[in-house]
Amino acid sequence: MQKVVNVIALLSGLVSFSILGGGAYLYIQKDALIESATKAATEAATEAVVGALPGLVGGLMPSVPELPGATGGAIPALPGAGAAVPGAGVPGVPSATGSVLPF
């Protein structure tokens, strides 16, 4: 009977030490384990998205329009504006500029 109790006590001690050792290993290696798990999850998600994209996008992408042969001016002319003074005759746009200081 004493031998059975000794074997159980020995096995209990071994289990306790293995749990402590495993916990210490996980605590020390937690950053590396998290990095590897994150990398694996990112790669799996990327592969799933890339694999699903051709079927999802299919005919949804419009065709690329052709570039025009000629373009207009950079700033369109205002209606009623004179050629010499930009903004002439447009309400709210001064016809001439002056000094910044009023005196």
Structure keywords:
single chain, 103 residues, mainly alpha, 2 helices, 0% strand
Question: Mind sketching the topology for me?
Answer:
Elements: H1 2-28, H2 30-57
Give your account of this protein's structure.
This protein has 103 residues and is an all-alpha fold. 53% of the residues lie in helices and 0% in strands. The chain contains 2 helices and no strands.
**Class by SSE composition:** mainly alpha
Largest sheet: none
The averaged pLDDT comes out at: 78
Helix content: 40-55%
Question: For the CA atoms, what is the radius of gyration?
Answer: 39 Å
What is the general shape?
A: elongated
Q: Would you summarize the structure shown here?
A:
This protein is mainly α. It is built from 2 helices and no strands. The model has no long low-confidence stretch (mean pLDDT 78).
